[in-house]
Design goal:
alpha+beta; 3-stranded antiparallel sheet; globular; about 130 residues; 2 helices
């Protein structure tokens, strides 16, 4: 069980590193003020890694539960909510848009399964 979980975590991490090169701007942040663009470009994860850029930040619903932050699965919004890894939660970065923002990548676990790697998450209103 532990070996399988470590293997899945390794696959997700490697996939996230590979998939960041394939990021693209799908127009979700057109016509935003310069200070908002600057904020997106400056946000870093708690470990100091850039969350990417405005092209990768997506608005999201969120909930704070006893176990931590949860967001709707971005691949299957009608599906279950997924937990945001505590190491991806960015505190004290502010939030000029007020909405929760998540930086995520889809990663292939195997030919029949796709997972989500959450690089960064900023709660709504910068909580």
């Amino acid at each position: 069980m532990i070996v399988a979980r470590l293997g899945a975590t390794l696959v997700l991490a490697i996939g996230a590193l590979i998939s960041t090169a394939a990021a693209f701007d799908n127009g979700q942040w057109n016509d935003v003020p310069d200070h908002v663009r600057s904020w997106f470009k400056s946000v870093r994860s708690p470990s100091g890694v850039h969350c990417c850029d405005i092209a990768d930040g997506h608005r999201t619903d969120w909930e704070l539960r006893p176990a931590g932050y949860f967001i709707p699965n971005p691949i299957d919004p009608a599906g279950e909510w997924i937990e945001v890894p505590p190491g991806a939660v960015v505190h004290n970065a502010g939030n000029p848009v007020g909405e929760a923002i998540v930086w995520w990548n889809a990663v292939e676990i195997d030919e029949d399964q796709t997972g989500i790697f959450i690089r960064c998450f900023v709660p709504g209103d910068g909580v």
